[in-house]
Structures are given as C-alpha cells and as structure tokens.
Amino acid sequence: MQIYLPIAEVSVNAFLLLGLGGLVGVLSGMFGVGGGFLMTPLLFMIGIPPAVAVATEANQIVASSFSGVLAHVKRKTVDFRMGWVLLVGGLVGAALGVQVFAILRELGQVDLLVKLCYVLFLGVIGGLMFLESLNAIRKSRSAGPAPKTVRRQRTWIDALPLKMKFRTSGLYISVIPPVLVGLFVGVLAAIMGVGGGFIMVPAMIYLLGMPTKVVVGTSLFQIIFVTAFATMLHATTNYTVDMVLAVLLLVGGVVGAQIGTRIGVKMKAESLRILLAIMVLAVCGKLALDLLLQPAELYSIGTAGGHG
C-alpha cells in the first residue's frame, strides 16, 4: 500500500513504515535508547531525504520515549530532579542545533553532514559497545561469586561548585556536568534526529555516577522534552517535519516500545548490549558504503544548494 509523503515528496509503502516504527519501538523499550540513531539512517535507506528524516524522526522519538517513561514511572526508576537539570542543557542545545541545521541547509550541505555524522557516531558507539559487551560476557562466564558493588571514586566532578542533592540517584554533585551532558545531547537531537540516549546513558553511568536502574527512565524523560522542542523548531524554521510519515512511525513505535520493555526484562543485559552493538555497526557499514559508492551525489547536493 503506497502512500505519498507531502513534505518528503516521495511515495513509500505504509506497512514498511509501520514495521520500521515497530522495530525501533522494540529497541527503545529493550535498551532505553530513543531508537532515532537507527531509525533515521533506515529512513535514508528507503529514500526519505535526510533533512526530512531528521526532523520527523525527532517526532517519533517523543512518542516511543513517552511510552517507555510510563513503564519506568510505575517502577519508580525515574530521577525527576536530575531529568529537569539535564533538560535545561538539552533545550539550549536543541535551539543551537536547529540554527546550525538551518545554516547548513541554506548552504546545501545538510544531507552530507548528517550522513557523515551518522557514520562517525555509529562506528565509534557500536565499536565501544561491542567490546564492552564482549568483556562483560567473558566476565560473567568466568565469574565465581558476584563482585561487590564498588563505590564511585571521587573525580574532578566532585570539586565543581553549584552542588545539588539528587535523592533518587543517591548523589550530591554539581549541576554543571548534567547541564553540559544535556546541552550536547540537545545539539545531537536537532542535527541528527536522535534522542541521544546512546550517549546520555553511558555519560550518566560513568560520568555522573548514577545507578544503572534509574538511568534509562531518567534519560527517556529528558529525551521526550528535548526532541519535542527540536521537532517544533524544525517545523517552524526549516519546514521539514512530514506529519504523515511521523504518524505512521509513531503508531508502530508506541506498540513496539511496550513489547520491547517486556522482552528487555527477560533477557540478559550483556546479550542485549551485544545485539544492539551488532545492529549499530551494521547500519554504520551500510551508510558508509552508500557514501563511498555514490560520489556523484556529493556534486548533486552541492549544485542543489547553489540554486536554493
């Protein structure tokens, strides 16, 4: 069943879009990532222009993250205070990112930039996750008794001013690092159409020292508002949000997120992470190949920008 997408100006199979939305929703529920870093490149692959894919995907992340957060609120695994602090940085970052996006669009270079960012990010993140998961699996196999939980070491973060108590996370740290993490993720949300969970989750665990059980819910909570804000800005400044595409992805995503949350509870964390890493590397490889095998496209992007 082909439907025409007015803003993207292409015809796509509606069931394919519902299926993609569902698949990414499942991942979102299983791993606590918004799923945008996989969905946006998948949209490139089925012929959606990158500028439209980025802006519209931010919309779909709002829905799947909202669905995921509801499940976490029930389990009381959301640190709302930390979420609001991350959000302050995230909103500023999203506003900056949308401005950069608009400038690049004027220059006609936005498609190339978005694809290059994806290849770089997915390659690095996928590689690191894969190595980390392999180590975790190796340790769990050779493990005798469960290791004692290590208390977080004092770092340079503890010396920063403007400290605040985060009761749900059991932390008393400066608000500066969470604001900076939020800022960075906000810029990514606007330029790459990602929720940024794949960067935020590790940053919250390793940099801020948050307990793993509250990280996913808190990350999703912040992602909802930042991506909603980025979508709104894209719709009003760049006019690149395709509502037909957004609704189809949204329906699939909400259903998928609920299924994913259930699967995630039953599977081992190490197995989940290695699966996600393999998927990320596969998408990265496909995007890199597309960039290498179609050099003519670079000129067409440049010339299209010249007439714009």
Shape: globular
Q: Count of helical segments?
A: 11
Count of DSSP strands: 4
Strand-residue proportion:
5-15%
SSE order, one letter for each helix or strand = EEHHHHHEEHHHHHH
Low-confidence stretches: 146-151, 297-308
Q: Portion of residues in helices?
A: over 70%
Radius of gyration: 19 Å
Can you list the strand order of the major beta sheet?
1-2
Main β-sheet, in a few words?
A: 2 strands, antiparallel
Look at the helices and sheets and give the structural class: mainly alpha
InterPro entries: TM_pro_TauE-like, TSUP/Inactive_protease-like
Pfam family, one: TauE
Transmembrane segments: 12-39, 84-104, 116-137, 179-207, 214-233, 239-260, 272-289
Family: Belongs to the 4-toluene sulfonate uptake permease (TSUP) (TC 2.A.102) family.
